[in-house]
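Meet the record:
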Amino acid sequence: MAPNAMPESSRSPLLEDTVAGAVDHKGLPAKRSTSGGTGVAERAAYYGVEANLVNYLTGPLGESTAMAAKNVNTWYGVTTLLPLIEAFVADSYLGRYRTVVIASLLYILALGLLTMSATLSSHNSPDYRHTQKTMSSSSPSQLQEILFFLSLYLVTVAEGGHKPCLQAFGADQFDGEDPKECKAKSSYFNWLNFSLASGLSLSLLILTYVQDKLSWVLGFGIPCIMLVVALLLFLAGTNTYRYSVKREENNAFGRISKVFVEAARNWRLSPSSEKAIEEGVQGTLSHQCSPKFKFLNKALLGQRFSEEGRKACSINEVEEAKAILRLIPIWSTSLIYAMVQAQSSTFFTKQGNTMDRSIGLDFDVPSASLKSIITITVVLFVPIYDLVFVPIATIFTRNPYGITMLQRVGIGLSLSTISMAIAALVEMKRLRIAQEHGLVDMPNATIPMRIWWLVPQYVLFGLNNVFANIGLQEFFYDQVPNELRSIGISLSISILGMGSFLSSFLIYFLEKITGGDDQESWFNDNLNKAHLDYFYWLLLGLNALGLATYMHFAKSYVYNRRGVS
């Protein structure tokens, strides 16, 4: 347990060196001089599966383009929504460190099974690699499909506990009460994503090439080995980590739930009771109670107005509940942005497959490897943002962080709209070239258009990550109670997951509408007859609408004080 609070004048130098609310691996107060290291598990294991998944589904598993896109979006959606449940378990029961270790072991098992499923495919042979474009391969066995999807969703379970807890555990290594560490903590999410993107850029280029040109078995097996090494490195730092101290009272989720329950029970109050609450809030409690969501103030009633003699909720507990409610508009208005982000793993990759990918005489760039441009952009721009943009912005805004977290997210949402405009224009050009060269009815022919035309939209997606994704991570981590930090990270992750589900639903809906009465669907397997450009223009309009709604709520958002608990 952390030491009890003491007057500043009576503290010894030993206690001044400890970190409030944190212990070391032995359960003793964490010392600033000997703790604070953190391990960043290798994220290439996940992206080694996700980046090229659509090509595996349409290749060895023989699915249609639309079906593969829906399966990828559904899997990605589940993968990014499940952390909400697993983060709750981690924050309330297991702890973040223990959850990371368990999730890593499960991850290794899942990737091992995924590699095993790939060995059942006849499409790993050299003969298949040379004849893949003919699309005349045999159907996969039922055993292969079952084992593949079982292991794929086992990756989902592992990812759900691993990602949010690791990111929150890393941020926990900084003491918000120490000026130097507080400043470092403000840049933590920037440099976390920088380090992840640095490794991912290289791994994506290598793994997608291995999967496309050599073997899916090797392409899935390498990430498994990488994760084993990453787990060993994480465990090696156990003695240097700081571990959060849990409060002895009810966990944060229980306290917040109690506020809503008590407010509902006290919904119908007598006029005198409501007047008493208003007088209390406007009087001695005015500096503590926020003016929004006043209906939750009814949870402050205790034995004075309750026939059952229930204990009243405290002001801090009510404010915790209000802080969670304030996040809902920001979360919901970011969903359309997430729908746009989902396209980089599906239709962007399929577009690249139809274009001229050659470099030199004998080398073709794997279309999925272009997704590494997103991570390369993050690697290049994060230092510029943190070391150049923030200091310059601080001069004009007087904000030590340059701009607010919600302003940062808003810039990312704006860039997302621009990226869809560029993607639509590039697709229109690709379709025009296919028509001019008489390739509309030749789905396996290479369009005489260089794949590098796709680079600008990938670069903008990388900038989206720097502004919107990292901004959302920091925002949700910072604005939830201390004990729910893993859930805060999960909320930011779940935006991308829900966006993928919405993208899958939109694709299904549009395919039914545009593909009826013997018409060519927007998502025809022959992309030369499809109309992804229409789909991109539609996403642009939806994203612009989402941006306007987001700006409305962001302007009125009242930031929760840092570290509320």
User: Anything to note?
Assistant: Confidence is low (pLDDT under 50) at residues 1-16, 32-41, 122-137, 281-287. The two ends are 17 Å apart (CA to CA). Residues 405-436 form the longest helix (32 residues). The longest strand covers residues 18-23.
